[in-house]
Amino acid sequence: MSAQKKLSLFDPAIVRRALLDSVVKLSPRRMMKNPVMFLVEVGAVLTTILLIPGLSKHVDYLFQTQITLWLWATVFFANFAEAVAEGRGKAQADALRKAKTETTARRLSGPERKEEQVAASQLRKGDLVVVEASQIIPGDGTVVEGIASVNESAITGESAPVIREAGGDRSAVTGGTMVLSDRIVVEITSEPGQTFIDRMIKLVEGAERQKTPNEIALDILLAGLTIVFLFATVTLKPFAIYSGSDVSVTVLIALLVCLIPTTIGALLSAIGIAGMDRVLQHNILAMSGRAVEASGDVNVLLLDKTGTITLGNRQAVEFIAAPGVEASTLAEVAQLSSLADETPEGRSIVILAKERFGLRGRELKTLGSHSIVPFTAKTRMSGIDFEGGRAVRKGATDSVAEYIHSIGGTFPEQVQQDVSRVASEGGTPLVVADGKQVLGTIYLKDIVKGGMKERFDRLRMMGIRTVMITGDNPLTAAFIAREAGVDDFLAQATPEDKLALIRKEQAKGNLVAMTGDGTNDAPALAQADVGMAMNTGTQPAKEAGNMVDLDSNPTKLIEVVEIGKQLLMTRGALTTFSIANDVAKYFAIIPALFLVTFPELQALNIMRLATPQSAILSAVIFNAIIIIALIPLALRGVKYRPLGAGRILRRNLLIYGVGGVIIPFIGIKAIDLLLHAVHLA
Amino acid sequence: MTTLELLKIVIYFLLILAVTKPLGLYMKRVFSKEKTFLDPLLRPVERLVYRVSGVDETKEHDWKQYTIAMLVFSAVGLLLTYLIERIQHLLPLNPDKMGAVAPDLAWNTAVSFTTNTNWQAYSGESTMSHFTQMVGLTFHNFVSAAVGIALAIALIRGIARVSAKTIGNFWVDLTRCTLWVLLPICLAAATLLLSQGVIQNFHPSAEATTVEGKVQKIPQGPIASQEAIKELGTNGGGFFNANSGFPYENPTPSSNLLEMFLIFSLGAGLCYTLGSMTGKLRHGWAVFWAMSILFLAGAFITTYAEQHGNPMHQRLGVATADGNMEGKEVRFGIGDSALFATITTDASCGAVNAWHDSFTPIGGSVPLINMMLGEVIFGGVGAGMYGMILFIVLAVFIAGLMVGRTPEYLGKKIEAHDVKLAMLAVLILAFSVLVGSAVAAATAAGTSSTLNAGPHGLSEMTYAFASATGNNGSAFAGLNANTKFYNIALALSMFVGRFLMIIPLMGIAGSLAAKKKLADTAGTFPVDGPLFTFLLVAMVLIVGALTYFPVLSLGPYVEHFLMNAGKVF
Fold first, then answer.
1. I want to staple A308 with a disulfide (CB 3.0 to 4.6 A). Which of A303, A388, A513, B414 is the partner?
2. B528–A contact, CB cutoff 8 A
3. Contact B273, B265 (CB under 8 A)
C-alpha cells in the first residue's frame, strides 16, 4: 500500500471520480440515508417545480432561480465531500484487487495426501495446500509444516521478506502473498470470499461501512434538530399570514435549509470515512469504525514492554570484573564467548568490548579447533570449548554458579553482590567464567525507546494510563517502568494475568486497549475494548482483535487512540459550528422576510444587507459554500493536541462555538456585497 | 435601573443562595431515607399512610413501574378534581352558592392543576366553591409539586446509580416529599403570610359600601394555606383572579419577598441535591450558577425595560417618573413587579402580581422567553431540574464529542438511545408551543380571543401556549382563555408539556441507571466549573432562541420597534 500512501486527498484522479459519484449519489434512495441532506434535496425539488411558469404569482425569476441552483449545489457539495472521502479507499481497493489474481492451489487431499491442482477459489476451511518458492499463497491459513520466507508487500507495502514457520506465533500466512524460498504446507483457515484481502477490499472501499454508535447518536440529534426547525419554519407561514405579510414557499425552504444543520449533515459520513482512511494510512486495518471510535474512549493502554516500550533486545552497557580480575580480561573473554552468539545481546557484547577496550572481535576460524556450546533453555548458558580443555561460558547467574560448583570452583561473594545490584537496577546480569574462574558480570540493560517518556506524558494529560506488561521479575519491571515513565506495570505476566488485569480495569469503568500477537493473547485481545493484533501474529490473535497492524509495530496503538479522539472531536466541532452558524442566518433572513410589512424590522438587519433578496440569497450561498470550505477539515480532522479535556473543550468551544457565531456574519456580509456589486440581487 | 431596584434583585438572589445548601442537603437526606430532625414526628404518619394504602416501602420500582405509578396517580387525581368541580353545587363549603363548573372549563382546570400548571381560565372567586378550592385544587398544589420533585429525584438516582434496575419507589417519594418537604415549609410560610395580613377563613363574601354608596362584594376564603403551597410548589393558581396582585393574597412588599423566595427555594435546593446525590457537589453548583445567570439576566432586562417605560408616553409628557406603571400594583412598583414576573416565569409558577400583558414589549418578552426555554431556570419544583438535565444531556453530547471521547455525563455514556429520548422531549415541547400558537393564529377561534391586534395579539396567543406547555400557568392576560378552543387546546398543551416530556425523561433515568460508571480521568468531559456553566447557558439559550426566534421577532420584537416608531396595538 506504500505506493498509494502518497496519493493526496485531492488528487486529480480522486476528484474526477468523486465529481461523477456526487451525481450518482443524488438518487433519492441513497440520499434517504442522510435525513438532513435528503430534506435539502426535497426542498430543491420543490423550488425547482415552483419555477414552472404559472404555478405561483409574482415570481422573481432571477432570485428564485438562484436559490434553486444553490440548494442543488448544497446537496451536490455534500455528496462530493463523501465521494472524496471514499476516493482514496476506492483507489486502494483497486490496487488490492489486482493483487488478488486468480491463482491455482496445490491441494493435498485424502489421507495419502495426493496433490491436485484446484482453483484457489475452491479452497475450503481445513484444506491443506503446499506452496513452494515463487508461488502465491492461495488463501489465508496457518503453516503446519516447514519454514519459508514470504513477501507480504501486497498487503503491508513492506518489501522485506518475513519468516513464517510451523508452530509458534509466526505461523499465519495471508492469501495473495508470495513465498520466496523453501516449501511450506498451509492449512486454509478461511472460506472463499472471506479472506483477509477480501475483507480488506471491503473495508477500504467502505462497502460494509456501518454507522458507528456515536454517529448514530449524532444522526438522531441532527434529525431531531431538523424536525424542530421544520416546526419553526412551517409555523412561520400562519404567523406571517396573521401578521399580514405573505412569505413565499421558496423563501421558507431557503430559511429551513439555512437553519437545519446542513454543514455537519453534509460532512458527517465523510468524517467517518476519512477517519478510517487515516487509520489505514498508518497501515492499520480496523475491522470496523466502531473499533476506531472506541479507541478514542480508551483510558488504559496495556503495552508489552519488549518491542513497544523498550527496544526489542537488551544491550550490554558495562563489564563488572570480579575481584582480582582486570576489566579488559573480562571483556576479552566475554567477547570470545559471544562470537558465536548471533543474538542482538551477543552482538552488543562484542561491540561494547570493542568500544571500551579496543578489542577487535576475532574471526572464529582463527581460534583453532573449538566447539560451540549453544544456548539452550535448559542450561541457560552458552560458550566455546577449545581444544586443550579451556572452556569459556556466559549465562544466567544461577546456571553459571551451578556449573562452577559442579567443576569444583567457587563463586565469589563480590560477583554475587554485583549481580544483585544489576538486577535491582532493572538490568539483566550475565556471568562470565573461564574454566573454574568467575571473571565477572556483564550488565545487560533494556533500552527504553527514545521519546516514549514524552508520549506517556502526553497520554497522561489526555487521561490515559499506560500499564507495562512484562515477563520480567517485579524488581526489573519496576525499574524499567520508572525509567520509561509508565503509570503502572504487570510483572511476570502470564496470559491469564493479562486477561485478569483487563477485566479488573473494565470493572473499574475503564476502557482498555492492548496489543498482542500470540495465540495465548487471543482471549485478552477479545476481552479488551480495543485489541490490536500484529500482522505477524497467529490467526487466532488476528481474529480476536478488532484491528490488525500490518507493520506489526505495537507502538502504533497510541496513534490509533489519537485518531479515534480526533474523529470524535471533528464531529463535535463541526456540529457545534453548524448550530452556532444559525444565529447569523436568522439575523440575515428574518428581517428580510418581513421587511415589507414591518419596515421597522430593519433594526434587526444588523449586517445591513442590501435587499431582502440579497440577504436570503447570501445566507443560502454561505450555507452551501461553507460545506466545500470545510471538506479539508472534515477529511484531515481538527487539530489534535494532547491536553486535558477541560483545555481541549475551552479551545474547541472558542474556535468552533464562538467562531461559529462570528464567521457567518462576516461571510454573509461579504457575499451580499459581492452579489450587490455584480447585480445578481 | 435605580440602585434600589438593583439592590432588590441582589438581596433576593443572596437569600436564594443562602437557602440552596441547607434545603438541598435536607431533601437529599429525606429521599435517601437518612435521619432528619422531623423523623420522630413524621415516621409514624408515614407508616400509617403506607399501611392504609398498602404500599411496601422497601420495594423499589424500575423506570416503567415508576412512570406508570405516577401516571395512574395523576389520572385518578385528574378525574377526582373534574368530578368535584362538576358537582360542587351538591357539596358542602359553598357559602356563595356557586353552580357546577362547565365541562370544558372543569376539564381544563383539572388538567391544569394535575400538571402543576395552574392555568386559570376562570376567576376563582366567582367560579369555585371553598370545597373545590381546598380539596380539588389545593390538594393538587401539594401532590403535583410532590410528583415533580419525586420525578426529579428518580432521575437523579438514575444518574447516580451504577448498573441498577430500579430508581426508587414512587409512592414513598411522593409521601416523603409531601410530609417532610412541602407540609412543614408551608406551615411556616402560611404563618408568616398571616402575619402580613393574608386572610384564612370560611366566610361568604363580605359586603362593603363604597364611598360612592354602592355595595361591593369582597370574597373571603382559606387563602393563606393555599398561598404558601401556591408559591412553594410553583403552582401559581391563585384563589383570586388577580392572583398575587390581590391584597388578600399578597398584601405587603414583605409578603411579596416571601412569596418570591418560596417560588425559587426548592428549585434551587434541588441543584444541591443533584450534586450531593451524585457525589459531585461542584456539578450541582455549576447547574445552580447556570440557572442563576439566566435568572439574573432576565431580571435585569425586565426591570430595565419596565423602568425605561414607553417612549410614546415620554413624548406625550404623560410618563410616570418611575417607568411603565400600567398594570402594576402601586404597593409593589416597578422593581417588585418586574422581579416577580421574571421569577414566576422562570420557575413555571405562574403566580402573578402584575399584568404581564401591560409590560413593555421587551419587558414582556422575558417572561415569554423564560417559558419557551422550557422552564429550566430553577423551574417548576422538580420539573426545572429534570428539564435542565435534558439540556445537560444535550450539551454534554454535543460538546462532549469535542474532547475526543464518547460523550459521558457523570460517568454515564450518553448513547443513541438517550439522545433519542432527549430529542423526543425537545421536539414535543417545541411542537406544542409552535403548532399550538400557529393553529391559534390561523383560526378565528384562536384570534377572536385576543384583546389586541397585531404583534401584541400574537404574543398573547404564543404566551398562552408557552405557559400551558411549560406548565407555568401564568397568563399574559388580554386573552380570553375561557372558550372551547382554548380550554381544549391549552389542556392538551398542558398535558403534552407535562406527561409526554416526563415519559422520555424517565426512560433516560432508567437507561442511565442501568449503565456502568466510567472512571473519571483527565480526559473526562468536565461538568463542573465556569466553562460548563457557560456551555449550559449557551445551550439553553441557543436551542431556545433557534426554535422561537421567528415567532418572537413577529411578536414582542417587532412590537418593540413599532412602539419606538410610535405604533401601538
1. A303
2. no
3. no
Angle at which helix A557-594 crosses helix A262-281, to 10 degrees, equals: 160
Domain range enclosing B229:
21-207+217-279
Tell me the chain A residues in contact with residue B568 when contact means C-beta distances shorter than 8 Å: none
**To 5 degrees, how large is the angle CA A466–CA A471–CA A476?**
80
Per-residue pLDDT of B52-108, as tens digits, reads: 999 999 999 999 999 999 999 999 999 999 999 999 999 988 888 888 999 999 999
Global pTM reads 0.87
Asked whether residue B67 is domain-assigned, the answer is: yes
Annotate A384-443 with DSSP letters as a single string: EEETTS-EEEEE-HHHHHHHHHHTT----HHHHHHHHHHHHTT-EEEEEEETTEEEEEEE
- For the question of residue A472 being annotated catalytic, the response is no
pLDDT, tens digit, for every residue of A227-257? 999 999 999 999 999 988 888 899 999 999 9
Q: SS3 for A94?
A: helix
Query: Does residue B318 lie within any of the structural domains?
Result: no
Cell of B547: 426554535
> How many Å separate Cα B315 from the centre of its chain?
38
Q: What is the pLDDT of residue A158?
A: 66
- Nearest Cα of chain A lies from the Cα of B411 at a distance, in angstroms, of 8
Taking an 8 Å cut-off on Cβ atoms, the answer to whether B521 and A463 are in contact is yes
To test the contact with chain B by mutation, choose from A220, A295, A460, A654 the residue with the greatest count of B C-beta atoms within 10 A, namely A220
Residue B179 counted as domain residue:
yes
Of residues A127, A304, A521, A549, which has the active-site annotation? Answer: A304
Q: What residues of chain B, 408 to 427, have a C-beta less than 8 Å from chain A?
A: 411, 414-416, 418-420, 423-424, 426-427
Nearest-CB residue to B400 (from A220, A565, A572): A572
Do the domain assignments include residue B436?
A: no
Domain total in chain B: 1
Q: What is the pLDDT of residues A324-338, one digit of tens each?
A: 888 888 888 888 888
| Torsion angle of the four alpha carbons A373, A379, A382, A383, in this order, in degrees rounded to the nearest 10 | -60
